[in-house]
Amino acid sequence: MPTREQLRIWRDYIETAQVLRTRLDSRLQSESSLSSGDYQVLLALTEAPQYTLRSAELAALIGWERSRLSHHLGRMEKRHLIRRVPCTDDVHGVDVTATDTGRESFRAGSVPHLRAVRELFIEALSPQQLANLDDISAALQRHLGVDGPPAPAA
């Protein structure tokens, strides 16, 4: 069993991460009219060739259940952020593409979102603390057997 101190550290971590996510999500929504889910989907699509991914690939990439993604894509499609078309080489597959409107919304939302990341997260930590957090994240990813996020493009 974890010690009392270990449980305190765990709880502080979880609660702080939730407050940070809630504040980032709130700012994203108020400053760009994109939800965090919209942003995740559009980020993945804008990094994909021709801004397109198969629905199943997109779900796996962002870590969502297919049914959750399908419902969310329906809402995004109504707002003209994405379009879905049947795959030409797979009768059961669906290609999801970021529209011009979706890509522009993503670009417009990225500036205030990245500003909020800097203000709420990066500015709170010293360079050494950021490096330590990077090491901690890598250790957790290894322990859990998950890949980390892709390295940013140069």
Our estimate of the beta-strand percent is 5-15%
Uncertain segments: none
Strand order of the largest sheet: 1-3-2
Assign an overall shape.
globular
Helix content: 55-70%
Question: What is the rounded Rg?
Answer: 18 Å
Tell me about this structure:
The chain has a three-stranded antiparallel beta sheet. Helices cover 65% and strands 8% of the residues. The model has no long low-confidence stretch (mean pLDDT 93). It has helices at 4-32, 36-46, 55-62, 66-78, 100-120, 127-144; strands at 52-54, 82-86, 94-98. It is globular, with a radius of gyration of 18 Å. The chain has six helices and three strands. A hairpin with a 7-residue loop joins strand 2 (82-86) and strand 3. By secondary structure, it is mainly alpha-helical.
Could you give the topology of this structure?
Blueprint: H1 4-32, H2 36-46, E1 52-54, H3 55-62, H4 66-78, E2 82-86, E3 94-98, H5 100-120, H6 127-144
Antiparallel strand pairs: 1-3, 2-3
Record keyword descriptors for this entry.
single chain, mainly alpha, 6 helices
Write a short abstract of this structure.
This protein has 154 residues and is mostly helical.
